[in-house]
Write a sequence for this structure.
């Protein structure tokens, strides 16, 4: 596709996000299975349902644009999800794994927020107001998920990871202070 116009770039970036969301839908069940913390499992399950809605919103936009959403692979998301999969394969201590899963998920969320913020802005400029609203809804949900993950990390998961029985001498010394 020739990218001679902002609208062409907009469509290209929407396809990238569509690919990213489809990849996330494949990865989330593995993350849910790997997570040990109940609230983290719940957060990932909720986000899996939201991600399906994100795909549906994008499909609605593609229908309005009369464009096929397929044909592009989001290599950025592929890389982020590969890092998360590698973490799971390393089989760290359960609390450490949960902390790592949150980190991986937040990398994904921030990538998505950057993409959705950009296409939302372009939709407004191109006077696709209904599309901009749909994109803003998804952007808001991605931000909410990021906040939930941060709260989980700060209030329990990171603390649990730090208290794993396999503490390093330095970590153990820090806890004695």
């Amino acid at each position: 596709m020739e990218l001679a116009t902002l609208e062409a770039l907009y469509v290209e970036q929407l396809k990238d996000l569509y690919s990213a969301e489809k990849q996330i839908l494949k990865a989330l069940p593995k993350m849910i299975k790997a997570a040990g913390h109940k609230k983290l499992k719940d957060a990932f399950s909720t986000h899996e349902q939201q991600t399906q809605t994100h795909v549906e919103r994008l499909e609605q936009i593609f229908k309005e644009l009369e464009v096929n959403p397929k044909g592009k692979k989001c290599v950025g998301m592929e890389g982020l999800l590969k890092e998360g999969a590698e973490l799971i394969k390393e089989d760290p201590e359960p609390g450490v794994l949960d902390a790592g899963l949150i980190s991986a998920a937040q990398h994904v969320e921030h990538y998505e927020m950057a993409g959705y913020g950009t296409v939302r802005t372009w939709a407004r400029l191109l006077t696709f107001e209904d599309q901009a609203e749909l994109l803003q809804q998804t952007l808001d949900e991605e931000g909410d998920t990021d906040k939930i993950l941060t709260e989980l990390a700060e209030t329990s998961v990171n603390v649990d990871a730090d208290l794993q029985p396999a503490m390093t001498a330095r970590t153990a010394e820090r806890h004695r202070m």
